[in-house]
Specification:
Layout lengths: L3 E4 L6 E4 L6 E5 L2 H7 L4 E6 L14 E5 L4 E4 L7 E5 L5 E5 L3 E3 L4 E3 L7 E3 L14 E2 L7 E2 L8
Parallel strand pairs: 3-11
Antiparallel strand pairs: 1-2, 1-10, 2-5, 3-4, 4-9, 6-7, 7-8, 8-9, 12-13
Keywords: Lyase, Metal-binding, Zinc
InterPro entries: CENP-V/GFA, Mss4-like_sf
Family: Belongs to the Gfa family.
Length: about 150
């Protein structure tokens, strides 16, 4: 696996992911993601990298390579991810905790977004008729009927 590079809008914060494939690439419909991103859905690439503190993991798979002093984070819940963003431009750069979630719009090299499913679709406010699997919560939760006209 090649490295994946990414950065914030103003290019002050840059990160790299090494030697790990995304575990899932999806669209999230949860209320928290929608509010944080001011969007009806949020595309995510989730990586199995544990980052409970700081902005670099012990195995060297994820690291903020530039502008670490410009990264700040917000944790909406005690159990949810920390949402890291750039202090200079305000761009959301990644979410971290038990997983690293990066936003495809931040990627500058090494990967492209290939969505596999929708998660937290029971919270959806915008119907998606794309044929991708839709899960009530995460991918391990109840799979909803494909493109059901009863539920957005």
């Amino acid at each position: 696996m090649a490295s994946i590079g990414g950065q914030c809008l103003c290019s002050a914060v840059k990160f790299e992911i090494h030697d790990v494939e995304p575990a899932i690439q999806c669209y999230c419909h949860c209320e928290t993601c929608r509010k944080v991103r001011s969007a009806p859905i949020v595309p995510l690439m989730l990586f199995p990298i544990d980052l409970p503190y700081g902005f670099a993991d012990k195995e060297g798979k994820f690291k903020v390579t530039e502008g670490a002093d410009l990264v700040t984070s917000y944790n909406h819940t005690h159990t949810g991810p920390r949402r890291a963003f750039c202090k200079r431009c305000g761009s959301a750069v990644f979410n971290c905790g038990k997983w690293i979630a990066i936003f495809p719009s931040t990627i500058t090299s090494g990967a492209s977004f290939k969505p596999e499913c929708h998660i937290h679709y029971e919270d959806s406010i915008m119907p998606m008729r794309d044929g991708l699997p839709k899960y009530a919560q995460g991918p391990e939760s109840q799979k909803l009927e494909e493109d059901s006209p009863e539920k957005p």
